[in-house]
Design brief:
The complex is a heterodimer of chains A (about 700) and B (about 120). With about 700 residues, chain A is of the alpha+beta class. Chain A has five domains: about 5-125, HPT domain (Four Helix Bundle (Hemerythrin (Met), subunit A), Up-down Bundle); about 150-315, Alpha-Beta Plaits (2-Layer Sandwich); about 325-380, Helix Hairpins (Orthogonal Bundle), CATH 1.10.287; about 380-560, Heat Shock Protein 90; about 565-695, OB fold (Dihydrolipoamide Acetyltransferase, E2P) (Beta Barrel), CATH 2.40.50. Helix content of chain A is about 45%, strand content about 20%. Chain A is built from 21 helices and 22 strands. In chain A, strands 14-18-19-17-16-15 form a six-stranded mixed β-sheet. In chain A, strand 8 and strand 9 form a beta hairpin. The longest helix of chain A is centred in the first third of the chain and has 29 residues, at about 5-30. By secondary structure, chain B is an alpha/beta fold. Chain B has a single domain (about 5-120), classed as Response regulator (Rossmann fold), CATH 3.40.50. A five-stranded parallel β-sheet of chain B has the order 2-1-3-4-5, sandwiched between helices. Chain B starts with a strand and ends with a helix. The chains are: A alpha+beta (about 700), B alpha/beta (about 120). The interface of A and B includes residues 73, 166, 170 and 202 of A.
Amino acid sequence: MGMAETHREAFRDEALELLSELESALLELEYRPDEQELIGRTFRAMHTIKGSGGMFGFTEISDFTHEVETVFDLVRSGAVAVDKELIDLTLRSCDLIRAMLEGDGSADAETRRKLTALFRDIARPGEPASLPSEDSAPATEGGSAAGGDVERVYRIRFIPSRDILKTGTDPALLLDELRQLGSCTVIAHPERIPRLDELEPEDCHTFWDVLLTTNRGINAIRDVFIFVEDDGELHIDVLDTHVSLSEGSTGKKLGEILVERGDLSSEDIHKALSFQRRLGELLVEKGMASPAQVESALVEQRHVREVQQRRQSNEAAASIRVSSERLDKLVNLVGELVTVQARLSMTADHRCDPQLTLLAEEVERLTAELRDSTLTLRMMPIGGCFSRFTRLVRDLSGELGKNVELVTCGGETELDKTVLERLNDPLVHIIRNSIDHGIETPDVRLAGGKPAQGTVRLTAEHSGDSVTITIEDDGAGLDGDAIRAKAVDRGLLNPSAASCDKELFSLIFAPGFSTAKTVTGVSGRGVGMDVVKRAIDSLRGSIDISSRRGIGTVITIRLPLTLAIIETLLVKAAGESYVMPLSLVEECIELNRVDAVPSSGNRLVNVRGGIVPYVSLRDSFNLGGAAPDIEQIVITNLSGNRFGIVVDSVVGEHQTVIKTLGRVYRNVEGISGATILGDGDIALILDIPALMGGTGPQ
Amino acid sequence: MAHTLLVVDDSASMRQMVTFTLKDAGYEVIAAAHGKEALAKLDGTRVSMVITDLNMPEMDGIELIRQLRSRPGCRFIPIVMLTTESQEAKKQAGRQAGASGWIVKPFNPDQLVETVRKFVK
């Protein structure tokens, strides 16, 4: 049952109770028609049914009860007398409301209309009792002139009532609220503050001028002052800021502003101008305007000028929108250029022509710069993606009766646009899971000694050429036993197999796996985590899960910054070229036969005292041929796990423009793509996580 | 430290809805069914804001506002009334008594929280 439905249920119970109380009050009232206490009870019951009915969506009940309430309000004030007819009518109304409560609110419309007309007739005798119309047109909002979008500068003068503090309103909070609407300059006018011995400390003696630049429209400003504008004074003017600066003016002159505000007449200004000194100083000196008035007007002049200048510079340095298609094309072209540049460099190396070498180096430098700036064009902060989740968390937690706060961190971290787009769905799924399965209901949390409010923390940060995103909740954690039971049940795990938590947890990424006891609308259909894993894999990323029972779960996703071009290490094995992401490479060492630890068929190497598992490319890919006497081993590091790959030789760093292998080779394990080398050869891109999975912890 | 709000309404369903909404928004809530209960429950507790219905048995909202304003700890706290469209006169009486603002029923939870945020920072 959703929260709204729970509230409706509570209202229904309450209204039924009120109705029976109302009936007994009415029956008593019939014998003691003048008793104010009874009349008051009747009125209050109707009033509550009306007010709460409207709150919980029983609009028809609310509308109908309004008619009855109106009449009893008149009874209360003595304008209408209680008689048998009124008691009868009201009792019939009780029956009708009860029927409406128990039905779907669609109870006998005819009875409702008749009763409404009768009550209206009592309330306004003589007037033709018009039948209530079925639907009244909703009030329309003010026109676009009052609405937002266009940025304008508003001059707001707010003179609060002296009693504002005594009605519990803090003017400073109102000014803060204005500041949230846009760029805001506030000038306080202290000139009305009396001398200390005459000062009434609980009164408000100050008033304010505010210059506000906002696109939210005048109604948003009025809303800020909604509760205080009747008691105090509020003037809001729109300033014309579209006078161009280039026309030689500097915006409105001080005198014009003072006259416009009604602080001074234009004669005063002319008189003052004849003294030919700075107008502001003169006005103050002659006592025509207070320093605060002049200061305030000067501030306005400055504020408007700033707005105009900003607008001008904005127009000058305006950003332009480019379709992503064009960007993608540009990235592709840069990729081709990088490939050609590599060939050029290689050719130049062979020719031993100093001039050509110089040119090739120049082209190399420029290409690298071009590549970097092109790739940053596609980068977008992940914050936009994050902010959509706030709503998701809010709605979901409401739906599930949980209290969850989403904390995000690192929203400024930038990722390739394509990566971001494809990341949204997996993240939604993980967050849904965290809230649905992870975070407990508030009572369970409190019982477990946790705060009632659960937290889901979303963090993004750079690490090398990849971005790490973690989704962390402080919920119940994963239930290792439930996962094991389910995995055995699904045939994903051998019942006798002993496995550590990490292995068990990784099973939730298996297709068709779900441990939720009941299927909710949110998650639990068992499609999901496997889809998430596939999505992350397709982005050349990795996903990891760790969890502690009762403490929470952390899901870590590592993603490459971009999908287009990466720095790689070029290696050779059996005459073939391979590249691997440089970010994963820790070091390259010679594979010394002595260091190779022959242990029960596993290939392990002793790297300065540490034991590191390795595979040989020659063996993994069945390349055949004899290995050279001295092989090289590239030590990679994947989220803390070291892993070696044995190759014939290490060539060096290489700029890799990633090409996909196409459909046919989609299922090849250990290879994630291909690239074209400087000499036109093709090198395959090694999928390190997949190669590593091949050895696995035994 | 979460703000504590005092919610006064004789309708149990309204109390439940308002309390739930405010707790959900991170506030602590003290709920009372009418003015007298509110004053009794308030005894000694500091609240950041009061949200009160107007029509209530025992002690109505107007009298409650008047009494709160005469208490030393409540002279300057925001008090918001829950009113209906038809209660203009009551609303004015509430403002006379020292109410800071009002919310017109029916309202949705977002409007309620928005109004509270206007007064409690």
